[in-house]
Each structure stands twice: as C-alpha cells, then as structure tokens.
C-alpha cells in the first residue's frame, strides 16, 4: 500500500464500520419485514379459515411459525450473522446465479484500465502513519501510469442468505457458490476480488472490520471514492485470540486450501491429510454444514461425525449449531457408537498391550467362534443333553449325539446365530419326526404333509419343547459372549491359531478384571467395537426405520427464510428422536448418508469395521494425520480402512499450514516428528509469537512441580491450560491440579487428540514416548496442542541437559 494514500485512521475505520452498520441495519429491517409478512400470513390464514385446502393452510402456518423462530435465532444466537464482504471487479459474463450474484470468476477484459497518474486518483486521504489503515491502490506500474478500476459488485457473506424485496442479495449464504471467492481468492489468484473484508459484530452492532487487499496494484474506486483498507487481515486476528474449552467456527477466515476440501463434491470418498493444527477438524465440521446446504434432502439428519474421544466431541459440538445446523449431524465418540448394544458410552481406556489385541482385525475370527461357542455354555440355564417329547402317543427322545448332529447342521448356515433359532427349531422337529417313524408310515405326500403340520403344532405347543429350545438355543447377547471370553481356557479354544498364548492371557485377564461371567460391568472404548461386531454375528433385534422428511419439499414464498427455519424444525425432530450429538437416545440411527471420520489415523481395524457398518451406502470424508497415529500396526489399519471404503473412488487433499502452533513451538515438535516419522514434511506454521518453549526439571515431588508449572502458565495466558501426562499418570495428574480452577485440565496423552489450549505443559516426554510402540507419535500430538505457550517438565528419565531440555527434544 502506498504511503501517500493513507487516511486518518479513526475516520477511515469509523467510516467503514458505519457503512457496514448501515448494511446490517438494512438486513435486520428486511428480516423484520419478513417476520411481519409471516405474522400477517398467520393472521390471515386463521381468519380465512377454509381458503385453500386444510393441508395447505396447515403447511403455511407451520412455515410462518418457523419463520418466527428463525428471526428469534437471528436476534439471539448468532454473534456475527453477517461476517464478510467482497468487493469485485466487473465479471467476464453478465450472468447472474440463483442468489442474484454475478457468476463469472474472472474479470471482464476492460475491468482494469491504465491511466495517467496525475495525483487525482485518490481522494486526498492523508498519510498519518497508522499501520494497516488507508486506501487501496496506487500500484507499482510504470512511472506516470496507474491501474484503475471500478468496483462493479459488492457481496456481503453471512451464515444464511437474505434477499431484498427486489431479489437483490443482501446477504449470501457462506456455502453458496457466489461466496466461494471470499475464501478462495488469494493475492496470487485474486479473480475478481479486489478487497476481502471480515466484519465482526455482536447482536445487531458492528464492532470492527479487517481487510485484505488482494489486488494492491490497482487503484480501485467504489461509488467514485477510493476503496478503503482497514486492519492487517482477519486470519491473524482470529488466530491470536484466547481459547476457551470449545472450538469456534472459522467461517469468517476459511483459507483457500481448506475451502477446496469443504466444497469438494460429496460423492464417493474425500480423504484429507495434514499435520497438527492445519484445520482438519474445523474443515470436517464446515464440510458437514456445506453438504447440508447442498443437498438437504439427502443429508438432513443423516451425517455422522466420528471422533476419537468424548472430550473432542464436547470440544467440537458447538460449531455446527453456530453455523445454523443444530441437530442435523450426529457427532459420536468411538466409545459411544454402539450405545444400543453396550447400554452405555465407554470412556475407559485399556492399557496399550490390551488395546492392541482388542483392536486387531484377527479378533473377527475369535469372535465368530465365540458367538457360536457361547450357545454351548448354558449361560442362562444348563444346556439340556436330551430332548424328550410325546409324538403320536409315544415317547420320542433325541440323545446328546443326535442333538449335536442337529446343532452342527444348523450352524452350517451363515445367518447370525440368534437368527438361526427358527432353523434350529425346524431341524429339531425334522429329527423328532424321523425318529418317531412317521415318515415311513405315510406314503401319500399330501397326507404326510397334513400329518406333519399337525405334528409340528402338537410338539411346539408343548411347554417342555419351548423350554428345551430356550435352553438349547438361547438368545445370546453380545455382552454375554464378551463375558464368556474372560475365561482363559475357553478363550484359548476360540482363539486357537489366531492369537498367541500371551495375547490370549492378556485379553482374558483384561476382560475378567472388569466384566462378570455374564458380561456385566464397565466396558472399555475398545470393547465397543467388539460388541458391535458380536451384534452382527449374533443378529440385531429388528428396529423401526426412520422416515425422512425433506423440508425443502415444503417451500413456498419464504425461500430465504425457510431454509434455516426448517433446520429448527429438523432440530426439534432430531431431538425428539434423540439424535443430538454427544448424548444419544434410544432410537440411534445405524446407517448414515455421509460419514465423516476425524483423527482417522487412530481407528483400529475393529473400529473401522464398526464405522463401516454405519456407512455401507454412504459417501465419506476422512481426515487424519498418519504422524499422529497411536495405533501400532498402521498396515493392518490401512487394510481395514480399504475394506471399509471398498471400491469407491478417492479424492485426496493435503492441508499444509499450521494455524495453531506458533513457529517457536512447531520447531520443537518437528524434532519429534523427524524421529517418529522420518522424512515427513511438517506443516508450515503461520504465526510467530517471539516466545520460546520453556524447559524445567521436576523436583522430588513431581505433583508439586506440575502444579507450580501449571499455575505459572495460568498467570501467563488468558485462556486455557492443558497438562499432558502419560496415560498411566492421568488420574494422579487430576489430583495434582485440583483447586487450580476450570481453566486448567489434566489429560492422558491419548486424550489430548484434537484438542488445543492457550498453553500446554507436557510432563515427561520420555514417559509418554515409552508407553507404547507408537509413543513418539503420541508425544508429537502432546507437543502440538498449544496456541501460545509450551512448557516441558522433565524427570530424571528424560535425561535433561543443563538447560533442562530433555534428551528427546534436543536439536542435535
Ligand atoms: N482458516 C482458519 N481461520 C481461523 N482459524 C483457523 C483456521 N483454520 C484452522 N484454524 C484454527 O486452528 C486450530 C486448529 O484447527 P483444527 O483443530 O481443526 O486442526 P487439526 O488439523 O484438526 O489439528 P490436529 O491434527 O492437531 O487435531 C483451531 O483453533 C482452528 O479454529
């Protein structure tokens, strides 16, 4: 920007804020008009009673009602309903899209002109030296000439679209095609965008504006005045803000490479890789909102986001409501994906060596045997050794060998075990029929069939037979099978040639430590995938299917309002069904139209199978970072992922910029990355704070040292502090921090996944790294959580040098 174009800072900034305020006022006036229209319609409908069909009137009432709710939300919930603006050059074609905006991306040939620089190209704005504020233009063209252009179109971008009475767009929905240049334009490829502005408002009041100038070489004019430029850009302002315990949406500052992922076509599989802090989780959430906008009919209520931990679920679940999509997306932790079967959400973690066995794809074979073997265990009642019935006045008996033959015949089928019960009943009756000699007595097939029908009725009518069947082919539950696997000898039989003896022992002991022989007790996160597999092997109880309602089928004249109002209706409906993220209701949906997997690198093979069952006909978005994987056998996991996705084509994206960690902290993490995944390129950190990470060595009382260090960090930052310890220490750590307040939390290293804090304290890197074969990758996660400050506390095991830097993090 040219110095001589600078304006008096207050006046430029204030003038621009005033201009945006008047636009926002206009938007709210328009919304109020719509609500008055809605109220009038409601009144009118009530007065006129029988005009139109009753159904149409009821529908109109419903829409009017929804419009009312919508305005309430606009007033109360959205902090920055209107958050962006782009000023555009004239486009190549004169075509307009459905939202009233011109569609062309490239400027018209004559949009930028060359003119003699006679000093009259600016409005006499004066240079006052204020950083960042001023007017655009005055380029670096040849001496004596400047490039000038007129702004042909100004678009305001917001959370929802609003059209004026004459159908000119007052606000464009951030997901509409016309809003894409707001996110995509860069100084290298600006397209038609001259200035991008982020507007910050609260309620109905505009507080500030931040501009990025994308074509600084042009002297641009808007309504005959030089285009003003305020601030140093919105991204840095957003990144520097203190963090709370919940994630914010990034709708005002989505970057171009992120936007490409968000707007990628829904079809098949979209895979996104990127290092820590590159916005993978943010992008995944915004993509869900985008898909809903694109195809509400298909996706309303039908998007599942799978998250590794309940902590990450509660951290992220506010983002979609802030984007106006409350209740349309189910966000579930891996431990609560099978709530119906498990009866609860699992939050307990197994030791790594136990998790490795439970998560392995080899468990499928073990579970298959266990599901069938459990029939023989007499879980509810002893398994009868003989069947005695009275047929044609005589006693008929099947002995143990004959019963075993029937059982073998039934199990020859592939149906789930519980669903084989009717077949078991049928083959038992066949066996009794044969044994009774009746088959030989009736040559005439028609007569034989009739006699047989009567025979079946007689036998199955006997209480004894029903009692026998209940005991001999009991309905087995997934929990019972899991409980049965806690017996080491039995498990060894079921796992023969699949698990090693040491693995059998590890698994049996871990199960026995928590579960009764009937499977009652607390489940671990990894047990959930086993239960889900068992439910498939045993057979799921029949459930009613949900009928989808498409809100957009009901549109009439309230087009730009009903979209969000319908979301409200949808949210209420979803709540009634118990779909709302995090919690979970009895009517859990089991198949989704789109499945988004966050932190995909961490799914075990068994978890991939569990997730795949929920997206058999779905399209997918998968985000992750192999360098942060805590799973020990990446190849096995990759194979399970390939199996889950089948032959669907894959579209791959990479995110390369780290928006979370300042460069000073990223350098340290990159050293661990080089050890954990040699050759992997780290993401580029965009910020620098000038504050280096701190190192210290714990005294004899580790707890006191942790507490002191955490207290220091609490003084240094405004927002949150995360203290990351090895999993084995997480309970202790909570006690160490007791009483320090809500801004600080203690986390086991695996729980830190995806979260972020203003400051983080990493306790004993060596202990974290030694906890599992994937420990270095887990340490990499721990070191990449902070947005401002990072402190590393070493113990003797860390071999700290004289600067207190632990061996693992030294530069050499
Ligand atoms: N375009 C953006 N504008 C503003 N903030 C952003 C942007 N992109 C990412 N961020 C912020 O950067 C931080 C990291 O984002 P996010 O948690 O989505 O990264 P991630 O790739 O999922 O990280 P990890 O791999 O560590 O889980 C968040 O605070 C997010 O809001």
TrEMBL record:
GO cellular component: cytosol
Stretches the record annotates as Disordered: 115-139, 625-644
Keyword list, A-Z: ATP-binding, Helicase, Hydrolase, Nucleotide-binding
Coiled coil: none
Residue span(s) of domain UvrD-like helicase ATP-binding: 253-662
Any GO molecular function: 3'-5' DNA helicase activity
Full protein name: Helicase
